[in-house]
Amino acid sequence: MTAEPAVDDPPGPHEIGRTVATRLRELRKQRGWSLDRAALQTGVSKAMLGQIERGESSPTVATLWKIAGGFACSLTSFLVDAAEPWADSHVRNAAAARAKPASDDMLVAPIFAYDPRFAFELLELTLLPGYVRHSEPHTAGVTEHVIVLQGRMDVMFAGQWTSLAPGDAVRFAADRPHGYRNLGDSAAVCLNLIHYAVTAPHPSHGGPSAPAQP
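User: That's the sequence. What structure does it adopt?
Assistant: Structure tokens below.
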């Protein structure tokens, strides 16, 4: 008998806030890091990390990326419950998953969280009008793939901005400075597949076991 695909109800904005706080505390505990050590590793201030852990502050997406990079984890490990079971097939609904996990004007739907068997995560991103984000380089070997579904947006890679329309797609090395922006007056929606280069499978799906070396 063929197994039915799993159908998940991804977390809403309040659940995501709790997931970020809980995950950050768990990672610090696992590594035995103080807030000072975590601040040194991530480049995020001790005060900000403490506020995030206590649920007193909502970080920007850029800050979440810095924290994930410092802990050598995937971005979705902070957006989706790490206890989520694996299954051979999953059915997701982007509208149900869509939330505003950070303080900036981007909606994120974690469609498929990082899975070490495939080494990627898939997000739907909604850039609200006027949104601009300059992203610092991610962990070595990270590659992003962007496919525009709705509206127009610009992606910055290789030192310049490139305009994309619905149906356009781009792949670029995300271990270098890059960015996203929507200068229009309506929302832009895209799929963002983030592939992590890893040296070996990780026993859990929280993120890469170790970043690939340049």
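The mean pLDDT is 81.
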